[in-house]
Amino acid sequence: MSRPDPVLPLFLDHPARVTSDRLELLTALVNGPRFDPLFRGELLVVPPDHPVYRWQCRVGDCERPAGQHSVELCFQHDREWAKARDAGGNHPEFLAAATPLKAARWAGQVPCLICPGCPATSEDRQLCRRHASRWQNRNRPDKPPVDFESWVLEQSPFDGYGSCPVASCRDLAASPLKLCRWHELFYQREGRPGGAVLPEKWARYYEVYGKPVPVTYADRRQFDQWCRTARSETLHGQVNLRGLRPLVKAEIQWGLFKHTEGDRSRWPLPWVQNLVNFCRDRDLGSLADIELDQCTHFTQMIARETLNELRLIYFTPETAREARFIETDHFGIRFPGRISHYDLTGVSQRWLRDVLWDYFAAILRSPKCPRPASTRPAAASSR
User: Which of 31, 232, 312, 367 gives 240 a disulfide partner, CB atoms 3.0 to 4.6 angstroms apart?
Assistant: First the structure.
């Protein structure tokens, strides 16, 4: 017989009627005083030195993120450490001597210095597309020199294009197409679903004269559908839960919080975002709807651990008995190196399985409950 899957009860016990009950339960837990407020909300911004989800390089004052394959160092410092290690260096001395690096690029969108409703496109001056063009023209060698700060004070702000319509995004739109710059590029890579296009040379013939720029669509419904399901940009230190259904969003929030308790494996935030994107792309109502064999290894790892934690709150000891398993955590017991779940479906007779469950429960409730992982009741021979 194949090994029982400990997340199986969540799939078997997921009729539509229980969704609202599970959401109500999780909402109460997420809003409770014990829950870390860092994991509430739709956009989770994690501190770079978080004790569990740390994402910044450990070289002092280095502004770059640690890589997915290096727990502690950014890409450049990881390469430098490899050379130092091969030369006989030690890690503490390397961290103390390494030169910190500035961030390679902006982390997320930055508004223009002059018009806060427009995103900056020029990193050296923090100007939007139109003001960057004006500054470039004013700063030409054939014109009298001008101080940048003085020039900024003389400029008037332009009206923006509003917010990006993608459900998972709240960045400012970069053009009359209404998409932010990242989603404009992603839309192009996706083959432009719905065929949304702007007129040729729209900035010269429309925008410069203050005329509204028309947008044409081959299929507006298809474009709107793409906006509802398009994934968000993955930014260091952020997990974007926008666009998820309420229950699966609360489940991921709970999983992130529970992962901070005890000695757990490392979850780089991009792996978490991959799970979020997987659920959003398929419009899942709950992690209990996920098809684990379609996930990557790391997405599956995060989903399984979260489902294990959810099983502990979705089932009471009584409903676990009915569902043919027992959770040691329900009794305040966790054997070292083991999960809480013990499957009893191998006992086919209902009466015998109930007796076995009651026997285990009595042992777990007993003050003399054995603690070693190797201690098992002898009733396993009844299978």
Answer: 232
